[in-house]
Amino acid sequence: MYVLLVVTAVIIVSLGMSFLAFSYVMRAETNVRYVGLQNIISEKMAKTIKGMETNAKNVFDEVEKHLDSPESVIAALQSKTSLAPDVRGYFAAFEPEYFKEKGKWFEPYVHHTDNSEFVLSMVGSARHDYTKSDWYVRAQKSKEGFWSDPYYYYDGTDMSGHYCTFVEPVFDATGRLACVCGADITFDWLTKELQRIDEQYQHHESLNKYVLMRNLGFFSVVVDHDGSCLIHPDNKKLPIKDKDMLQDLEQKKSGSQDMTVDGVPSTLYYGPIEGIDWALVVVVPRDDIQKPTLTMGFALFALAILGIMIVWIICRRIRYAE
């Protein structure tokens, strides 16, 4: 009996230490895997956004070269629309009375319609006094481009929807602010782009190299610095209420947080997207993360029972043999 107890203790301690070591390794592997994935997807989104900025700047540069007349401005806007077909529209909102004949509001807007053609609209008016808009006031004080806060635009047409706008002030040859130019991007397009990136990495060789019984299911969302969900798959909104995570988002820090998402216990890996005041969050079901550790735990438990039974049988035979 003494031998059985000693050997049983050795088996339990050995397999218990093996389980703890495996658990530690799996936590480290999971953290490296999904932190790396979050960084990669963030970089992809940053490149997408940067590409939109570059195309928009090309349009704005063309407007800057043609400030001699309203007609030249409109022609400049129309000439570069093919640079970024995913942009909903380009506009140039001019300072009041910049062109005397156009009065206080002159804002030509070249934009997509339902049939994907670009059309021209004049949107500046007393009803739409863009000079009082936050983006316009901010641009008047700035000499650099920036992304506006997300907003919802509604006019009862196909133009209605959630938008974000890249805005940049344009100055004339004398250094005077001539207008504020903008490029509108819909969240519908950004959502499709994020889903495309997710699908690419869900089947990527590097992510699927060591599956270890996991499904490796995840999805990504984009949140604003205040935690509000901007871009997400259908029915996958992310209500962020944790104070520490909200503080990290505000300060553009990276981290991870456990949270229940749509009734599913999950782990969130988050970090800032370079060049814009947003963060990308990768959401992973916790049971998928824990699957290798739980499987190993059951396997080691079964091995311990088997080892103890074998030792018990051997001890019993030795006892009877005596």
Features:
7-stranded antiparallel beta sheet, about 325 residues, 6 helices, rod-shaped, single chain, alpha+beta, 5-stranded antiparallel beta sheet
Secondary-structure map with pairings?
Elements (H helix, E strand, L loop, with lengths): L1 H63 L5 H10 L9 E6 L13 E5 L5 E5 L11 H8 L4 E2 L3 E3 L7 E11 L5 E10 H16 L16 E6 L4 E3 L11 H8 L4 E7 L2 E9 L5 E8 H36 L1
Antiparallel strand pairs: 1-2, 1-7, 2-3, 4-6, 5-6, 6-7, 8-9, 8-12, 10-11, 11-12
Helix pairs in contact: 1-2, 1-4, 1-6
- Beta-strand level of the residues, as a percent range? 15-25%
Q: Separation of termini?
A: 14 Å
Overall mean pLDDT stands at 83
Number of strands: 12
Q: Spell the H/E element sequence.
A: HHEEEHEEEEHEEHEEEH
**Apparent shape:** rod-shaped
As a whole number of angstroms, the C-alpha radius of gyration is 29 Å
Helix content: 40-55%
Main β-sheet: number of strands, strand sense, barrel status? 7 strands, antiparallel
The helix/strand class is alpha+beta
* Number of contiguous helices: 6
Low-confidence stretches: none
Describe this structure in words.
The protein is α+β, with helices and mostly antiparallel strands and 322 residues long. The protein is 44% helix and 23% strand. The chain has helices at residues 2-64, 70-79, 134-141, 187-202, 243-250, 286-321, and strands at 89-94, 108-112, 118-122, 146-147, 151-153, 161-171, 177-186, 219-224, 229-231, 255-261, 264-272, 278-285. The strands form two sheets. Strands 1, 2, 3, 4, 5, 6 and 7 form a seven-stranded antiparallel sheet that branches. α1 packs antiparallel against α2 and α1 runs antiparallel to α4. It is rod-shaped, with a radius of gyration of 29 Å.
